[in-house]
Amino acid sequence: MEARHLRYALALAEHGHFGRAAHALGIAQPPLSKQIADLERETGARLFDRTRQGVFPTAAGEAFLARARRALEEMTAATVDASRAARGETGRLRLGFIASALLDPLPDVVGRFGRERPDVRLELHEMASGRSATALIAGELDVAVTLGPPRGAGAEHLVSVPVGHDHLIAAVSRAHPYAGQASVSVDQLRRQPLIVAAGEDEPAVAAVLRSLLGEDAAALDGATVARDVHTIIGLAACGVGVGLGPSRMLAVPRPGIRFCEVTPRTMLPDLVLSFADCDRSPVLSAFLGTVRNNCPDVGTALDRRLGHT
């Protein structure tokens, strides 16, 4: 029994006449009569009464047609679902990210992806770079945004591209002596209580700060430790000290806070987007398409890494 047999039976029931049903189906009447007869032999029941007034479903036919209608509806839905899944319109995307990526670029990328693919289930996990890299390599994430590229065993099987470049800036309260300055020097930072981020990603940033301030920088050794960039900004607003963090903090304007450039300009590790080289998931491809649309430079780098022209 094939789907066409179900369609033939439903058409015959609708038109009540072999000739009209055959015309609606675009086939000749004799093949339709033969297919209905074959269907009745296969089911072992007479599905239609043939009368001078027309062709009418029997009780067995009514039962068969009810199931046939639902079966065809399910087959149509299955085709639609398969097509949508192949286009990345349904499914699941597991994204791991560090907190500062929520300043930029994730809000625009994730927001746009959610609007364009509302039926994709987004699973968002804030986690330190080392943990998300491990989860990505283990197949527990589909994509990760980390501070610097993932490292360790298995990282060679990942595709990684920078999605954000940062340099060091300072955040101070509006009552702070540096609030009116466009920039602060390293010597000025050494004379101030500092606020820096903690967490598993801190070693990479701490190495940059120690290189900038000097290995014996007492200001850094006695710095107030914050959980993330939002806490750095909040503590700076309280007048606790000078907050040091990535330039994407500029995306969080807050009353009572002033931002200053740090001279000399000091680059911080890039934000890096990574995914498994062997991942051919349509949902991941759709997400990368959104990244391309929002971040043209990232799209170019992706194409180079993936060997696209």
General description of the model:
There is one protein chain. By secondary structure, this protein is α/β, with parallel strands linked by helices. It folds into 3 domains: 3-86, Winged helix-like DNA-binding domain superfamily/Winged helix DNA-binding domain (Arc Repressor Mutant, subunit A); 91-163 and 271-306, Periplasmic binding protein-like II (D-Maltodextrin-Binding Protein, domain 2), CATH 3.40.190; 165-269, 3-Layer(aba) Sandwich (D-Maltodextrin-Binding Protein, domain 2), CATH 3.40.190. 45% of the residues lie in helices and 24% in strands. The chain has 12 helices and 12 strands. Helix 1 crosses helix 4 (59-86), helix 5 (106-116) crosses helix 11 and helix 11 (282-294) packs across helix 12. It is rod-shaped and about 105 Å long.
